[in-house]
Task: inverse folding
């Protein structure tokens, strides 16, 4: 098992929690934007040209959707109403084999008019701010899912251990100690019934009520858990920089032996090894 982490060490590990929007598909769409814009240039966009671009570029449909300003779900609904079934990803995969039908639907949706409108539009500062505000709202909504991103990372490690050494675990819900006490836990190993390992995962990108809740959640677990149960805390996010006093209190609980170890995204491999050692020692 590893030694204790200091407040300064933990602070040095904190970083933004990735929202994971720029995955492989995201990068391919960004590359496709450049190709499609260069391809259409100042050409008159008709159904034949749309069909040709759909065949040439596997992510052209994403670019055309952006011109139409539709989410993937709304776009899929519009295509479904035109008898092109499936979610956005499956519709994208059909572009190679059935571009004529999809090009026809794009024309019906007004793609040519949308592109011509954007071509002729002269952007003002107000337009820039409106557009930026819309994207910031989107990022704010994404930030609400960052805590889940951290939990997903922990679950990924537990699934790896499940495959490697056969552990079992429960995600979420209340665990129950030998005395019958209950408290919430993000992960309980091997189950919620008298867990041998308890893991709490909380990530913060912005301040808010959840930052004040975490200390209370930790204290509830400490009051209820069995003495021989291992308790780990996983956190990350730059929101902690505005609540350093709370972070210090959590580190103090760790240094007093109440929390066995505190991990961040960058040290999650150490959590995996710690769990492996615990299981091997049983």
Result:
């Amino acid at each position: 098992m590893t030694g204790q982490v200091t407040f300064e060490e933990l602070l040095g590990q904190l970083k933004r929690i990735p929202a994971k929007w720029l995955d492989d598909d995201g990068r391919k769409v960004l590359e496709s934007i450049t190709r499609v814009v260069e391809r259409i240039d100042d050409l008159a966009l008709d159904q034949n040209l749309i069909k040709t671009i759909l065949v040439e570029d596997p992510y052209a449909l994403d670019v055309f959707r952006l011109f139409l300003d539709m989410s993937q779900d709304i776009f899929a609904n519009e295509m479904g109403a035109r008898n092109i079934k499936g979610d956005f990803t499956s519709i994208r995969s059909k572009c190679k084999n059935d571009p004529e039908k999809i090009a026809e639907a794009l024309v019906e949706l007004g793609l040519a008019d949308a592109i011509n409108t954007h071509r002729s539009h002269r952007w003002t500062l107000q337009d820039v701010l409106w557009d930026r505000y819309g994207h910031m709202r989107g990022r704010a909504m994404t930030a609400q899912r960052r805590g889940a991103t951290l939990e997903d990372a922990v679950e990924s490690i537990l699934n790896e251990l499940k495959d490697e050494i056969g552990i079992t675990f429960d995600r979420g819900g209340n665990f129950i100690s030998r005395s019958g006490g209950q408290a919430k836990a993000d992960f309980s190993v091997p189950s919620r019934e008298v867990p041998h390992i308890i893991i709490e995962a909380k990530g913060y990108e912005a301040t808010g009520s959840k930052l004040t809740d975490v200390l209370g959640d930790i204290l509830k677990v400490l009051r209820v858990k069995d003495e021989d149960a291992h308790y780990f805390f996983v956190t990350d996010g730059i929101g902690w920089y505005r609540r350093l006093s709370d972070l210090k209190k959590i580190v103090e609980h760790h240094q007093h032996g109440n929390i066995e170890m505190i991990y961040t995204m960058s040290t999650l491999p150490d959590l995996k090894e710690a769990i492996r050692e615990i299981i091997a020692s049983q």
Remarks:
- Residues 146-165 form the longest helix (20 residues).
